[in-house]
Design a protein that fits this description.
72 residues, mainly alpha, 3 helices, 65% helix
Length: 72
């Protein structure tokens, strides 16, 4: 007798969560790309002032906004 996985709402919800996380990860810029852009923001300020965290978040947002959307 073979064991067969039953489809349940819990299993279906898990599958949807996995698919959603894959879509989110597909649209994530790489760590290196964020670091380079964040550094350029600091460099543009003459290596003074600002916040590394704010530069990082700004870089991440800009890179995400400029990425093409993936279509299935």
């Amino acid at each position: 007798m073979s064991a067969k996985a039953k489809s349940s709402p819990k299993n279906e919800a898990l599958g949807v969560a996995i698919l959603e996380s894959e879509v989110i990860l597909d649209n994530c810029p790489s760590h290196d790309a964020i670091a380079v852009l964040a550094y350029s923001f600091w460099e543009a300020r003459g290596f003074q002032g600002g916040s590394p965290e704010e530069d990082w978040l700004r870089a991440e947002q800009e890179l995400r906004a400029n990425r093409p959307e993936t279509k299935d």
